Amino acid sequence: MRRGYATGEARKERILAVALLEFAEHGYRGASLARIAARVELSQAGLLHHFRSKERLLVAVLDYRDELDRRRFGPGHDGHDGGAAALRALADVVDHNARVPGLVQLFSVISGEAVTPGHPGHEWARGRYRRLRADVAAALRAGVERGEFRAGLDAEAHADRLIAMMDGLQTQWLIDPGQVDMAAVFRGYVEDLIAALRPA
Amino acid sequence: MRRGYATGEARKERILAVALLEFAEHGYRGASLARIAARVELSQAGLLHHFRSKERLLVAVLDYRDELDRRRFGPGHDGHDGGAAALRALADVVDHNARVPGLVQLFSVISGEAVTPGHPGHEWARGRYRRLRADVAAALRAGVERGEFRAGLDAEAHADRLIAMMDGLQTQWLIDPGQVDMAAVFRGYVEDLIAALRPA
DNA sequence: ATTATCTATAGATCTATAGATAATGC
DNA sequence: ATTATCTATAGATCTATAGATAATGC
Questions:
Q1: What CATH number is given to the structural domain containing B6?
Q2: Which residues of A touch B (CB under 8 A)?
Q3: What is the pTM of this model?
Q4: Is the pLDDT score of B3 beyond 50?
């Protein structure tokens, strides 16, 4: 693996950052390579030299963000190792994402579009759900092991609920920011859940 | 208000039905008037005679579906008048929608796209959330009045949670149908909530 | 008179490729 | 030699309008 061509690497990073904003703003279908290229101050053909197609560019953006995000939640990270602390870490992720411009919007827009089979983000969205579900369910089970949560809870169902709550609140928040305090409502749900799952 | 030109009215209905499927399949931006027209067996110009622009067609589709749906949940309908029965009616709506092809997908795709200000569905999505939130919050308060739910609950926050759960599960279900039993998970949430809100 | 429909087309995109030129790194 | 760029362009869309013709309803 060669390192060189530093300007190329820098360009690629810059393209990813700009493309993220464009895909967030217009969705995959509505985004235009010409507009992205213009914002990077590069010709469209120049852009396509770095990413061979629009499809690959989207996937690259999603992978890029995913990698950064997985470091914030997941087994072993954030100091927590499962249980209530893990769920609170999830609430922290929601908090944090709300402050990165375009990020929540990218996920909402692409998840919406990607519902269609054949959409280039479809596989990514499916993978993301499965990974998240597995991580959250594992955190719940770890909580049971440690006696924080009552035995016999349905870890998968609660994981689904947590993820759905997170995604659903994000959409509401984006559509009507003044009406919903996404982070607070999600945190409230998490705390209620932690209390409800406490062993009798 | 004249009635006449029956074929025109029938055509309009047919266009709406086809457009719903196309918008559900490709989103607003990905849908094509030419393709919709072809499926209705009409020229593209013929289609635009009935709906003056793509934007108006989307809004017409959304309003059309909204009207049908509001009859299934909302104050006074479904036999219920608030409280636990209303929340269960909401679970019935989820059940029902899952069986109408394209319907859940239309809402998920358009809600995702509409997150962008300036999208023709933006206003619609905002209105839908506000109406739903008001209806669900009213149902929760009615439950308090009748002594089904404990006094002092935060009706708006629980309404937000219910709607988020509904929308989030729909997206998960569409992206990975085999992994999530949307209707069952939602019903589980509703039942848990009803139990949790019971007065001490 | 109004409505429904068509053909033709303007005008604006869009993605991706071909092929040339310049710069970088081993 | 590889990488980074560019201009030019093919080829495929797309939406919306102009203008003509036929059918419907009062």
A1: 1.10.10.60
A2: 25-27, 29-30, 105, 108-116, 122, 125-126, 129-130, 133, 157, 160-161, 163-169, 171-172, 174-176, 179-180, 185, 188-189, 192, 196
A3: 0.92
A4: no
